[in-house]
Write a structure and sequence with these properties.
By secondary structure, this protein is an alpha+beta fold. About 25% of the residues lie in helices and about 35% in strands. The chain folds into 2 domains: about 5-235, P-loop containing nucleotide triphosphate hydrolases (Rossmann fold), CATH 3.40.50; about 240-360, Nucleic acid-binding proteins (OB fold (Dihydrolipoamide Acetyltransferase, E2P)).
C-alpha cells in the first residue's frame, strides 16, 4: 500500500526548548491517523511542520515519496483545517468550497461540477446557496472539510477541529467524521487531546508526550496493551497503585502496595524482588461481589463513597476500609446494581490477568 506521509527523525527547537524530538512515522493511503497528547506536548508544532508553516530543525518529511524540503505551504499536496474553520462569512457555501479552485484558475464549468460532487459526498447536496450563518455547527464542519477535499489533497490535516463544538454535537461529529473519511478515502492526520476522539475515529493513534511518541498502535492495543506508564495513565480511566515486588516468577508478580495491600498481577518480564512498580487497573476490570468459586482473583472489601451516574458509563467511587485511596469501579450494563447505596460495604475482585505493571517512573 502506498505511503502518503512519511516523517523521519523530525526535530523542532525553539532556542533551548525542544518542542518535537526526533519523531518518525508513516501514514498509509486512506488511513485515519491521529496524534493524541496533552496541551503543550508538541503535536500542533508537528502538524505545522507537515503543512509547511513551520520549518523543521532536523529531519525529513515526504508526501507520496516526494521530499517537502523547501516546498512552501501553498505548493504542498496537503490542506489544513483549524478549530476555528475560517469559513468566509460573506460567501455562500458554494463560493466557500470553490474558493481554492478559482485561485487555481480552473474553468467555471469544472468548478461547478466539482462543487456539486463534493457537496454530495459530504451529504450537503443543495446547500450551494446557503449562507454560512444559516448552517449548524456540524454543517459548517462539513463545509470546511469539503473546501479542502475539493482540492484533492494527498493528506488532510485537522488540528482539533471539534474543539469548539458543544459536547453533544462533538459526539455526533466523531461518528460523522469517521464515516466521511471512510467514504471519501482521503488520508486524514488528526490532532487532538481528547482520547475519545482518537479512539473512536482512528485506524492508528500516536500518543505524544513531551515532544516524543510514546506508542503508535491501533486504538484497541493502546487501550488494552499500553507500552509505557504514560500511555496507561493517559488513555482511558485507570486505578493506580504504587508498590514493591514481594516475589515474582516469569508471568505473575506479588505486589505490596504503599498502603500495605497485597495484589497478584501478570507481568511481561520477571521483576526483581524489591523493585518499585506502578500498577494500573481499568475500572471495568473490577468485579462487584464476585462469586466465591472464581479463581485467581484479588479480593477485598470497599466502602461506597459515591455513585457516579452517567448512563452506560456509570461508576462507583469507593475506598478500602483501611485506606483513603479512591477507586473507580465500572457498573456493568448487563446486571442491575440498584441495591448498592452510599456507605455500603461490598466485596470487589479483579483477575490477576487484568493488571498492567511497569517499573516505577515519575508520572506527570
Amino acid at each position: 500500500m502506498q505511503i502518503d506521509l512519511s516523517v523521519r527523525n523530525i526535530t523542532k527547537k525553539f532556542k533551548d526548548f525542544i518542542a518535537v524530538k526526533s519523531v518518525s512515522f508513516d501514514v498509509k493511503d486512506g488511513q485515519f491517523f491521529s496524534i493524541l497528547g496533552p496541551s503543550g506536548c508538541g503535536k500542533t508544532t508537528l502538524l505545522r511542520m507537515i503543512a509547511g508553516l513551520t520549518e523543521p530543525t532536523e529531519g525529513v518529511i515526504e508526501i507520496r515519496g516526494k521530499s517537502m524540503v523547501g516546498i512552501p505551504p501553498n505548493k504542498r499536496p496537503v490542506n489544513l483545517i483549524f478549530q476555528q474553520l475560517a469559513l468566509f462569512p460573506m460567501m455562500n457555501v458554494g463560493e466557500n468550497i470553490a474558493f481554492g479552485l478559482f485561485r487555481r484558475g480552473e474553468k467555471k464549468t469544472i468548478i461547478k461540477k466539482k462543487v456539486e460532487t463534493i457537496l454530495e459526498r459530504v451529504e450537503l447536496s443543495g446547500f450551494e446557496n446557503k449562507k454560512i450563518d444559516q448552517l449548524s455547527g456540524g454543517q459548517k464542519q462539513r463545509v470546511a472539510i469539503a473546501r479542502c477535499l475539493v482540492l484533492e489533497p494527498a493528506v488532510l490535516l485537522l488540528d482539533e477541529p471539534l474543539g469548539a463544538l458543544d459536547l453533544k454535537l462533538r459526539e455526533q461529529m466523531k461518528v460523522e467524521l469517521k464515516k466521511l473519511q471512510a467514504k471519501v478515502g482521503t488520508t486524514f492526520v488528526y490532532i487532538t487531546h481528547d482520547q475519545s476522539e482518537a479512539l473512536v475515529m482512528s485506524d492508528f493513534v500516536a500518543v505524544m508526550n513531551n515532544g516524543e511518541f510514546e506508542q503508535i498502535d491501533t486504538p484497541q492495543n493502546l487501550y488494552n496493551n499500553p507500552k509505557t506508564p504514560f500511555v496507561a495513565q493517559f488513555v482511558g480511566d485507570n486505578n493506580t497503585w504504587t508498590g514493591r515486588i514481594r516475589q515474582c516468577d516469569k508471568y505473575i508478580a506479588e505486589i505490596e502496595t504503599d498502603e500495605g495491600h497485597l495484589f497478584r498481577t501478570k507481568v511481561e518480564d520477571a521483576f526483581q524482588t524489591g523493585l518499585s512498580v506502578d500498577l494500573f487497573l481499568r475500572p471495568e476490570a473490577m468485579l462487584i461481589q464476585p462469586a466465591p468459586n472464581i479463581a485467581n482473583l484479588n479480593r477485598f472489601k470497599v466502602i461506597i463513597k459515591s455513585i457516579l451516574f452517567d448512563g452506560a458509563n456509570s461508576q462507583l467511587l469507593a475506598t478500602r476500609p483501611d485506606s483513603k485511596k479512591e477507586l473507580l469501579v465500572a457498573l456493568p450494563q448487563n446486571r442491575q446494581y440498584d441495591y448498592i447505596q452510599v456507605n455500603d460495604n461490598i466485596e470487589i475482585g479483579w483477575n490477576e490477568q487484568s493488571g498492567i505493571c511497569f517499573p516505577r517512573k515519575q508520572l506527570p
